[in-house]
Amino acid sequence: MPSLILLMIGGALAYAFWNSSRAAAERAGELGRNACRAADVQWLDQSVHGTGLRVCRKPNGWLGWERTFKFEYSHDGVDRHTGRMVLRGDELVAFVGPSAARISEIRRGVDTSGAEDA
């Protein structure tokens, strides 16, 4: 009987860890998508990948998980760049990725000098 209780507790802990991992991955996907949209770049593969997990101390003093995710983006659909973010719980603590919009190609027939044609 005690082994069944221990098995149930272990299963509940495994489910809680899995559930918090999925929630963190969804939050990271949302942050990556929003960063790419704000920087006017293409978010490739529409996914993030967990690359690291470690125990950390939260601001309230409790222990928690710090998860590292990577994602890929492109400025023009040909190049490929890797972004990285670190989450403590659902709080973003570090981000490396697209930061500003960039013009990748000047279209023909568009006057970029600002002068008006008469």
Describe it for me?
The protein has 118 residues and is an alpha+beta fold. A hairpin with a 5-residue loop joins strand 1 and strand 2. Helices cover 32% and strands 36% of the residues. It has one domain. A four-stranded antiparallel sheet has the order 1-2-3-4. The protein contains one helix and four strands; from the N terminus they run H-E-E-E-E. This is DUF3301 domain-containing protein. It comes from Stenotrophomonas nematodicola.
Number of structurally distinct domains: 1
Radius of gyration: 21 Å
Strand sequence of the main sheet, in spatial order? Answer: 1-2-3-4
The SSE string, one letter per element, is HEEEE
Helix amount: 25-40%
Query: Into which percentage range does the β-strand content fall?
Result: 35-45%
Q: Roughly how many Å apart are the termini? A: 91 Å
Helix-strand category: alpha+beta
| pLDDT < 50 stretches | none
Shape field? elongated
Number of strands: 4
Counting H and I runs of at least 4 residues, what is the number of helices? 1
Question: Overall pLDDT, averaged?
Answer: 84
- Give the biggest beta sheet: 4 strands, antiparallel
